[in-house]
Amino acid sequence: MQPDTGINAVAHAIQLAVAPVFLLSGIGAMLAVLTNRLSRIIDRGRALDGQLASSGPDAAASIRSELQALTRRARLVSRAITLCTVTALLVCTVIATLFVGAFLGFDASVPIALLFVAAMSAFFVGLLSFLREILIATASLRIGPH
Questions:
Q1: How far apart, in Å, are the Cα atoms of 138 and each of 79, 83, 114, 119, 127?
Q2: What is the pTM of this model?
Q3: How far is CA 17 from CA 56, 92, 116, in A?
Q4: Nearest alpha carbon to residue 133 among 46, 29, 40
């Protein structure tokens, strides 16, 4: 049997990197959703802030309450964005470690496993933060006449 050549090691690293690359695509889509939600929260907050100066005392109290909820939602989405970005960075590090291990010929299984667990943990917490934001958004949802 022929010993592994450099090209075989690279080909094997590419095969191993395919799944993390697909994971990066999913994380990218999640980041797009989160940044869109943050943009909408900011736009709504700015609109309400503009209404605050010209509103009566009862309306002002309602607007302040909604602004507080929007602030909390923005913090949660921001945290989710940060954690999903950390996840993407960790997945990129997994891919880089796969290639470094293939080029230098060392067993990278332990660092790769630890990086992957860290990535999934960050993604899990990011998704929990996103879920909390959704729960706040739906709890304060008002449809129809007020």
A1: 19, 22, 36, 29, 16
A2: 0.86
A3: 59, 10, 12
A4: 40
